[in-house]
Amino acid sequence: MIDTWPEARPPTADELAERASPCAGILTMLTERVDEALLERCPDLRVVANMAVGFDNVDVDAATAHGVLVTNTPGVLTEATADLAFALLLAAARRLPEGSTAVREGDWGPWDPGWLLGRELNGLTLGIVGPGRIGSAVARRAQAFGMTVTYCGRRDAVAFPGLRAPWREVLRTADVVSVHVPLTGETAGMFDAPAFSAMKRGAIFVNTSRGGVVDQDALRAALESGQIGAAALDVTVPEPLPPDHPLLAAPNLIVLPHLGSATHETRARMAELSVDGLLSALRGERPHHLVNPAAWERAGRGAGA
Ligand code: DGY
């Protein structure tokens, strides 16, 4: 039997637990919290297929302890998310929202050689924080625009198109910083007041990863002081960000409603991959994109089983 959540809003924790309690598998979005409390109420659960590459909404250790497999959707959203990061970078560098607003609000006056000047990307340095698939795809785009790319991150990115540098050095030298790290205990709030102060004055900050990696009060202060010249975010805390949220009062800020993977092609592939992960696990096969191989081993299904 398949039970589908019928509403546009995500279920509350209680509604999710109630609907999921008899299930052997659930297909979740990044809006669903899968934690110990939920897992305790779902004794028959064998798999959580998360329709996202990020899985910070899932307590993976708790799932492993319950023998529940967790799958995600890596790879298929790389290009779409990199496109969006680059669109944000260009929009911030060339002040597209301001130009568009000026047209609609009747502020488009006579041609003025000094009006709405932005920055051209050719010759700028892009610092990528998080050299995974998406960071690498953004770096390739940047090189095509004549940018120098530096990067830092935990992964030893052998074929990364750019120069590896320590985190502080990336911040100090980049004209644009683009964030591509997962949200973990280690990365939460890593873009705080000291990080923004370490960046070049007037640098552009782009975040398409998770809102939780940014201390939003610190970002707002950095935008207000001009330390950060412009910020372009696809992700915030909370999501949705209410229109009266204090962050939105900051100058030179673009915020999008988490559109990184929002293309027809990518969302279709994400849906296919997550259904694939769900069905493989229910058939007793090892899913391709298993986040917690330990759960597979734990259930005695690893090593040639
Ligand atoms: C993800 O997959 O983690 C994105 O943030 C949503 O598509």
Description of the structure:
The protein is an alpha/beta fold. The chain contains eleven helices and ten strands. The strands form two sheets. A seven-stranded parallel sheet has the order 6-5-4-7-8-9-10, sandwiched between helices. Strand 8 (203-207), helix 9 (216-225) and strand 9 (228-233) form a beta-alpha-beta unit. The radius of gyration is 21 Å and the shape is globular. The two termini are 28 Å apart. The mean pLDDT is 96. The chain binds (2R)-2,3-dihydroxypropanoic acid. The site of (2R)-2,3-dihydroxypropanoic acid has 7 residues, from loops.
Ligand list: (2R)-2,3-dihydroxypropanoic acid
- What's the number of extended β-strand segments? 10
> In what range is the share of β-strand residues?
5-15%
Class of secondary structure makeup? alpha/beta
Sheet having the most strands: 7 strands, parallel
Order of strands, widest sheet: 6-5-4-7-8-9-10
Overall 3D form = globular
Mean pLDDT score, rounded? 96
- What count of helical segments does DSSP give? 11
Helix content: 25-40%
Spatial gap, N to C terminus? 28 Å
Query: What is the CA-based Rg, rounded?
Result: 21 Å
